[in-house]
Amino acid sequence: MERLKRDFNTISLAMIPVAIAINIAIGQIVYALKIPLYLDSVGTVFVGAVAGPWVGALTGLLSNLVWGLSGLNPAYTPYAPVAAIIGLLAGFFSQWGWFKVWWKAILAGVITGLAAALLSAPITAYVYGGITGAGTDLITAVFRNFGLGIVPSAFAQGVSSDPLDKAISFFIVWLIIQGLPARFLDRFSRAEDVR
After folding, report:
1. Are 125 and 78 in contact (CB under 8 A)?
2. How distant is the alpha carbon of residue 3 from its chain centre?
3. Would the pLDDT of 133 be above 70?
4. Model confidence over 72-102: pLDDT tens digits?
5. Beta carbons of 68 and 80 less than 8 angstroms apart
6. Which among 25, 81, 157, 162 is placed 20 to 30 Å from 112, CA to CA?
7. How many Cβ atoms from other residues are within 10 Å of residue 3's Cβ?
8. Which whole-number Å values give the CA distances from 70 to 39, 54, 58, 137, in the listed order?
9. Helix, strand counts (H, E) of the chain
10. pLDDT at site 151
11. 181 φ/ψ angles, rounded to the nearest 5 degrees
12. What is the domain partition of the chain in residue ranges?
């Protein structure tokens, strides 16, 4: 309980809205360009890595709720639990020291991407009929053309794109952490987990 209290310190709470803004800004650009990735969880992964799993989970959850309910992209609201899991996993991987080495950060992203794919595919299939308006719809359409149904196509799309997407996001966060001064990182409760 004491560790959780330290995780939710002032700097961590101040980073949540910054992370949400980063997620939305990058995500909106990728969405508008119809790139078959998302890259909308860089802020969530960063907060999870430096502030712990529960702060990361809250950041992911709030990010998708703010994004969706603000009217910028309502399609993101149902994926809020998936974004929470991404932040949670980023925090656990950080706790296990996976952000100390670039290839472990990438592997953590791949694993997180697989988890995200399994969780988001039913939402994509049942809430949106497999079409969300994102660039990943092209991948879903390819699998539909191979004769797969909506649910298998949504799973195949997720497994095809989410691991790469999260590997890139985790690697970007690793790069950011490497470039930050120790003085700044020391303000976070999990700084020792990423150095």
Report:
1. no
2. 23
3. no
4. 888 889 999 999 999 999 999 999 999 999 9
5. yes
6. 25
7. 11
8. 19, 24, 17, 23
9. 10, 0
10. 81
11. -65, 145
12. 2-194
Class of domain 2-194: mainly alpha
The whole-number pLDDT of residue 142 equals: 80
d(CA 156, CA 143): 7
List the structure tokens of 118: 């399994």
Quote the tokens at residue 38: 């998302």
For 192, the token pair is 């020792």
Quick one: average pLDDT of 110-130?
A: 89
Distance CA 47, CA 14 (A): 10
Q: Which residue has the tokens 């803004």?
A: 21
Q: How many residues does the chain have?
A: 195
In the chain, the percentage of residues whose pLDDT exceeds 70 is: 99
pTM: 0.93
Residue-wise pLDDT for 12-42, tens only, equals 999 999 999 999 999 999 888 988 888 999 9
Token pair in block for residue 60? 């992911």
Q: Which pair of tokens denotes residue 154?
A: 């949504």
Amino acid identity, position 61? L
Nearest to 161 by CA among 137, 177, 130, 133: 137
